[in-house]
Specification:
105 residues, mainly alpha, 5 helices, rod-shaped
Length: 105
């Protein structure tokens, strides 16, 4: 009786793959790339989120620098002209004066 040699279906499928894709170095490189791009602690999604956070924080820094400069300019103006600052911002008046507040609609 002749027995027929059985082949593994996975082996047959593996042999249909081109030789350069069966190379162990190529398979290792593909696995390493997939691991680093999607499953690593510093994957692509994390890098995009960190980059957007850095951009947002830099924009906040510029905004706060601008607000600081404006506050310092207002402080300098107040120190130089205390009476004018009090009259304009707090509607203070002397005893013999009347203050009229005009509101634009």
């Amino acid at each position: 009786m002749a027995t027929r040699k059985r082949t593994n279906p996975v082996t047959e499928l593996w042999m249909k793959v081109p030789a350069y894709l069966r190379n162990r170095y190529f398979v290792t490189l593909v696995c390493f790339t997939v691991l680093m791009l999607f499953f690593d602690r510093h994957d692509v999604g994390t890098q995009f989120r960190l980059n957007s956070t850095v951009n947002r924080l830099e924009a906040d820094l510029k905004r706060y620098d601008k607000l600081t400069a404006e506050a310092e300019a207002e402080k300098l103006d107040m120190e130089q002209n205390r009476e004018r600052f009090a009259r304009e911002n707090y509607y203070m008046q002397q005893d013999d004066e009347d203050v009229f507040i005009i509101v634009d609609k």
